[in-house]
């Protein structure tokens, strides 16, 4: 099963979502955006009026919610796709994602998702190569210079991106780090097509 998983990690603005989606399209595989899962739980937590750092209540929401992450993101029957990148969500998502109970619930769903795909899955996030699929057939760590990453974030304030990056790298539960087996790809001066082509070439060597 793990041969049929391509795991991609990297910080905000490294190009993960765009690259992962296109690699999945090129191979005819499914694509899973795990950041959207943490963001959807955050939207739900805020809608319920819970404090993002209320460990128990937030973990309960993550464990019990009905979550569907596809072209649209639906949580507990509400389409939250347009809410995922709002400022309040950018601000609260780090606390939600640092909650060990939330991570356990999400990781379980991510592994189940991959298990049910008949072809294969391209999964991207912060802990995919290190924790969720440590035995993935192919592991990639995407990077880009700080300047370029800030530019790509567009609407999000650079200080907000930097704050999320610092929180993701320093948290106790599954911090973002470069896995020893991951192939590192610096996307700073490269086109999306070029990066996708390289990953697809590696993927073709998978059994
Ligand atoms: O698109 P961007 O890289 O800015 O963020 P994202 O992938 O939408 O993820 C949003 C937040 O969710 C990150 O800042 C992490 O705090 C968290 N996250 C995580 O902890 N683990 C993952 N596998 C994916 C996202």
Short structural summary:
With 207 residues, the protein is of the alpha/beta class. It contains nine helices and eight strands. Bound molecules: cytidine-5'-diphosphate (CDP).
Q: What would CATH call the class? A: Alpha Beta
Provide the list of bound ligands, each named once: cytidine-5'-diphosphate
Radius of gyration: 16 Å
End-to-end span in angstroms?
10 Å
Strand element count? 8
State the low-pLDDT regions, or none: none
- Say what the CATH topology is: Rossmann fold
- Total domain units: 1
Helix content: 40-55%
| Classification by helices and strands | alpha/beta
Oligomer: single chain
What overall geometry do the principal axes of the alpha carbons give?
globular
SSE map:
Blueprint: E1 5-9, H1 16-27, E2 30-33, H2 34-47, H3 55-64, E3 67-69, E4 73-75, E5 78-79, H4 87-97, H5 100-115, E6 121-125, H6 128-132, E7 138-143, H7 146-153, H8 158-170, E8 183-186, H9 192-203
Parallel strand pairs: 1-6, 1-7, 2-6, 7-8
Antiparallel strand pairs: 3-4, 4-5
């Amino acid at each position: 099963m793990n041969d049929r998983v391509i795991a991609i990690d990297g910080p905000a603005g490294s190009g993960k979502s765009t690259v992962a989606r296109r690699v999945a399209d090129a191979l005819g595989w499914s694509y899973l955006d795990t950041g959207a899962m943490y963001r959807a739980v955050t939207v739900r937590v805020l809608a319920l009026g819970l404090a993002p750092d209320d460990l128990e209540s937030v973990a309960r929401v993550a464990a019990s919610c009905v979550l569907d992450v596809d072209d649209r993101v639906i949580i507990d029957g509400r389409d939250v796709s347009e809410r995922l990148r709002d400022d309040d969500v950018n601000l609260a998502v780090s606390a939600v994602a640092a909650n060990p109970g939330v991570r356990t619930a999400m990781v379980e769903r991510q592994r189940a998702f991959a298990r049910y795909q008949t072809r294969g899955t391209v999964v991207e996030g912060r802990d995919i190569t290190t924790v969720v699929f440590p035995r993935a057939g192919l592991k990639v760590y995407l990077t880009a210079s700080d300047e370029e990453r800030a530019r790509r974030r567009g609407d999000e304030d650079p200080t907000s991106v930097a704050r999320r990056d610092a929180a993701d790298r320093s948290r106790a539960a599954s911090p973002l780090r470069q896995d020893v087996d991951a192939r590192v790809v610096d996307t700073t001066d490269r086109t999306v097509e070029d990066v996708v082509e390289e990953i697809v070439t590696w993927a073709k060597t998978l059994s």
